[in-house]
Amino acid sequence: xxxxxxxxxxxxxxxxxxxxxGSILGxxxxxxxxxxxxxxxQNVEECIITIQGSSYDVTDFRTEHTGGDVFKCGxxxxxxxxxxxKSYLPMIAKFKVN
Length: 98
Description:
Layout: H1 3-33, H2 37-42, E1 48-51, E2 54-57, H3 78-85
Antiparallel strand pairs: 1-2
C-alpha cells in the first residue's frame, strides 16, 4: 500500500473515531443535563421571569428546556440568559408577556 493511501486511511480512521467518541460523550452529557420531568411536574405554578426589562412566561417551557429547569420564577434572569445564550432574545420572543 502506498504512503499516500496509508496516510489517507489513517486520517479517515482518526476522523471516524473522533466522530464516534464525540457522539457518545455528547449523548452522555445530554443525559445528565436534560430536564427532570418529575421535578418540573411538582412545580406547576406560573413562572414569569424578567430578561432585559421584559417579562416572559416560561411556565410550559420549563419541562422542555434542554438545559433543565434553571428558571428562578419572579426574578431577573438577564445575566443567566446572557451567559448561556448571549443576548439572542428572538429565541424566547414567543414567551414574552410585555
